[in-house]
Each structure stands twice: as C-alpha cells, then as structure tokens.
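Researcher: Let's continue the batch. This sequence belongs to VWA domain-containing protein, and it's 420 residues. Same format as the previous ones, please.
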Amino acid sequence: MTAPDGLSADLAARVTAFVARLRVRHGFLLGPGEAGDALRALGAVNVLRRREVRDALRCVLTASPEQRRLFDQEFNAFFRRDGEPPPPTLPPVVPQTEAPGVEQEEQPPLPKQADEGREEQKKPAPTPQDSGDGEDGDDADMAQAQPLGESDDADDDPDEPAQTIRTKLSPNASGGGEFDAAEGDLPELLRAASALVRAVELGRSRRVKPMPRGHKLDARRTLRAAARTAGDPTELKWLGRPRRAPRFLLVLDGSRSMGRDATLLLRFAHALHLRSRRVEVYAFSTGLTRLTPLLRGAPPGKTLHLPDLGEAWGGGTRIGANLLKLARQEREHVNRDTLVFILSDGLDTGATEDMERAMRELHHRAARVVWLSPLAATPNYQPVQRAVKAALPYLDALLPAGGMDDLHALAGRLKRGGAL
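Model: Same format as before. Here are the structure tokens for VWA domain-containing protein:
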C-alpha cells in the first residue's frame, strides 16, 4: 500500500501490519479501505507524538467500546517505544503437563514417605470418569458429581455406596504443551458437521433482499431491467426474506478431566469450521483463549497442530469464570443468530454464581445454548454436577458427546428435542 505524502514507508508498513493483526486476532472487520483511511488519518497528526497516533488510529479502526479496549491493548504491545523492554517472561513454577489426548510416559515409582500413617495410591491417567484436575485434599474444596449408574454386578451388595466423581483445582494446575491430532477421521467429522449445519433453522430475516424467487415484486429493479427491452417488463425482479444464516460459538473444555474426549471435540470444532465460516472456537482450562485464527490456518487433511495454549489446555477446570469472561468478550458477536455449544464434562471447581451469571447472559442473547457432555453418554447419567445444575435452567438441550456416533446423531437429537 502506497504511503501518503509525508509518511515514511516503514511506518505505513507497520500500520498495515497492525490492521491485519486486529483482523486476524480479534475479528475486526477491517480491510484495505480501512488501512488506507488509517494512513490518511496519520497524515493529519504529528506522528512523533504517540498519543496522537493512537487516537487517530482508534477513531478509524474501532466501532465499539469493546473494540477500543482491545485496540488499546494491541496498540501498546505492537508500538512499543524504542528501548522499552518487552513484558517479562516468567519461568513456570512447575513442569508443564501433557495436554489431553497425549500419551503419558510411565513415571518411576515414588519413594515411600517416612510417615507410616499416610497412604499413597497410584492413579490412572485422567479420563472423564476420573478427573485429574487436582490433588486429593479437603472435601470442602471439591465438586462432587452424581453416580453414573450401578454396574450389572452391583446387586451383590445393594447397600454399597455408589461411585462418585470428584475434582479439585490444584494450585499447580498449569497449561500443557503443544497439541497434535491426526485427521484420519476427518471425513466422518465433516459429515457430522454438515448434518448439523443443514439442521439449523432459525427462520427468515426481517429485512427483504433481492432474491430469484420472492413474495414481493421489486418495482424499481423491474423498471430498470425494462429499460433494456424498450420499456417492456419481460423480466420481473423479486424481493424476499432470506433464511437467517446461523453463527456457531463453540466453547471447549480442555482440562485434564476431559481426557481424549477433548481431542475428539476439538477435531469436530475444526470440521465445523471447515463447513461454515461463521464459526468461533474458544478453549479453556484455568484460562481462556481464542482458537479461531489457529484453526483457520490449519490445512485440512493433515495433522492438526496447535502451539502451546498455556492455561487454556491441560490444566484444571474453571468453567463458570471462563464462560463469564467469554460472555462479556463476545458480547458483540453473540446475537439471535448464534448457537452456543459448550463442550465440557461439567466438573467445575469455581463458584456457581459465576456460572449462573454467564449462562444467564448467553441465554438472553443467543438463539440456542446447548451443552455437550462426554459423561452424558454413560448409562443412567444424572446431570447433578454443580456446573451443569447451575446451567440447566438456561440450556435448550443437554446431549451426550462420548464418541463419533453421538456426533453423527447430534443434529437429529437437536431437531427432535426442539432445540433447532
């Protein structure tokens, strides 16, 4: 892009790169036109004054208070003063843990403790039935789930207490490394994603638009077309209300308790992104991160590789706090055309108040809110986890997502349940 008179080519290139950064990272609706407007705005201010440059770019590139907040953060990070040190990178407090779906190597046995009264038990790798989000501790800090049903051989002792699922947020629950997932089952996931997109029916738009077949004659366009045929209206133009195109917002629980289910659901989110460009994907564990730019750049048919997601993958679980953050961060993009899918086992360690507040906001603004749980695929499942109980009044559907069969049946279950 050509720099305006009086503006250096280096600064013009940096501004263009900054516009691309806002578009890719945060979904700003910016293009070459906005980049040119930004360069022309800089031609009217003193580019040696940082505040004037920031204010000029903010006026051109933002359209809401939320975008202005994100703009200020990115501007301060992108246009650091000469000699200003970058933010410090602190070393991890504990070694990084492996992300869900990554094979764990066997650890050597731990030495016995000197205290004979303390028993150490080896635990298997975390699965949806055995949360690995934390260490054993006081019951007051733990979230307890309903028994998933008695097994066939449980009638030997009817008074035996049912198995429960417990989870606790460990203070050392850090993020866990890079993520790799083979795409061998991509065709199956694409079929499930296509069925879901086709099943969504949100009705028709309130606004009329030109359509090949509509319910209202477009007299203006018809007369214009008649001018090409000597005033004879041989071609009629119509107006109609097109079907509302759905948006999808997927929020994936990447904590250790999700195990391999997190890997499958992330590949399903990637397949849905390939079938519809109106898809936003977030992942959370103890923190929240946006995965849409990473999935957008992932080549289909090859191994899905994601960089280290930090606190958003392979750590503990804070569903309510992260959903509340998402509800406020995506306030502009969640509307009556948005279907929100929460992909989680519901084993939360946070406050239920945050969960209720987040679900109330999402339910108020979104078209549908659906919870997909791997635990719901188990026999005799009862949704009594604290997070799921708090979310139930605001859900349009709570459905199983324990494997490929559940993903194929997702569209049909949503239509039968009236959620679509």
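Researcher: Any comment?
Model: Residues 21 and 74 are 8 Å apart (CA to CA).
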